[in-house]
Amino acid sequence: MDTSSHTLPSFSSSSTTLGGSLPLTSSPQLTSSSVSLTLSPVSFPPSPTSLSPATAESAHSSSPVSDFAASHCLEGQSTQNLGQVNTSDQDDLTCLSWLHQRGDLLSLQPLAKITPLPQQQTCTPGQLPSPPPAPVSSKPPYSFSSLIFMALEDSPQKRLPVKDIYEWIVSNFPYYRTATGGWRNSVRHNLSLSKSFRRIQRDKSQSVGKGSLWCVCPEYRPVLLEVLRKTHTYHSTNSNLINKPAL
DNA sequence: TTAACTATAAACACCG
DNA sequence: ACGGTGTTTATAGTTA
């Protein structure tokens, strides 16, 4: 089985969340020149989730995500890597390196700042105001790849163990607080299959708990960011047409 | 209709 | 033995 076809954070709008059943109700917002993400406070009345801290903080240009977006540079990685995709990747049918060559990633329209969820404060204490709690009945519009991406970007070290990724998602997307455990399997599945994420073997001397640390592959960062941008654009465009509850 | 992609479920192996 | 983690396979749904 060719797993490569499953590994990319595709930004084709064909995903279940992005272009599929359109279960969404939240409205992620991407901002301007920093290509950062912000949440729309009112676009989706039944907005259950909000674009996480990543998006929220980006409004302040202070979150890891926004920092990344602004700098287009990964921790320990120079920007040159962003445009670099090795030959093997380019040969890959699923290679999305062309995205890196696009010049419109910095030309997103500015959007309204959002009000972050209260849970976000648990992740980034002291940085965000407390918005009213969002309903938990609707599924967030983000693919698991996006969720993982946001979680990793929001971590100080840009890397997290699976357990912390779970916690970040639950903290920022209340839907998953009550969702059945299958989504965790999906998270692990995504981490394992997606080229966007890389496993970092923990230093045994520092190892606390099980598992490895995961980080975003720098060359796929723009791709993941584009996924978020497209998600945002899609839902912004259709917010007045689509208001379908999650499954 | 087909390909591509994502979500979900399940099975299995490994490790602490 | 158990639970968490990581990998792999299979299947279904959706869009282009």
CATH superfamily: Winged helix-like DNA-binding domain superfamily/Winged helix DNA-binding domain
State the CATH class.
Answer: Mainly Alpha
- The H/E string reads HHEEHHHHHEHHHEEH
**Which structural class do the helices and strands define?**
mainly alpha
Largest sheet: 3 strands, antiparallel
Helix coverage percent: 25-40%
Q: How many helical elements?
A: 11
Domain count: the total is: 1
Q: Beta-sheet strand percentage?
A: 5-15%
- What name does the CATH topology carry? Arc Repressor Mutant, subunit A
Which whole number gives the mean pLDDT? 55
* Gross geometry: globular
Subcellular location: Nucleus
Pfam families: Forkhead (PF00250)
Main location: nucleus
Organism: Ilyodon furcidens
Describe the protein in words.
This protein has one domain (4-238): Winged helix-like DNA-binding domain superfamily/Winged helix DNA-binding domain (Arc Repressor Mutant, subunit A). Helix 7 (144-153) crosses helix 8. The chain contains 11 helices and 5 strands. With 247 residues, it is mainly alpha-helical. 46% of the residues are buried. The two termini are 30 Å apart. It has a 3-stranded antiparallel beta sheet with strand order 3-5-4. It has a two-stranded antiparallel sheet with strand order 1-2. The protein binds a DNA duplex (16 and 16 nucleotides) through residues 1, 3, 5-6, 8, 10-22, 93-94, 143-145, 161-163, 182-183, 185-186, 188-193, 199, 207, 209-212. InterPro entries: Fork_head_dom (IPR001766), FOXN2/3-like (IPR047119), TF_fork_head_CS_1 (IPR018122), TF_fork_head_CS_2 (IPR030456), WH-like_DNA-bd_sf (IPR036388), WH_DNA-bd_sf (IPR036390). Residues 139-226 bind DNA. Pfam families: Forkhead. Keywords: DNA-binding, Nucleus, Transcription, Transcription regulation.
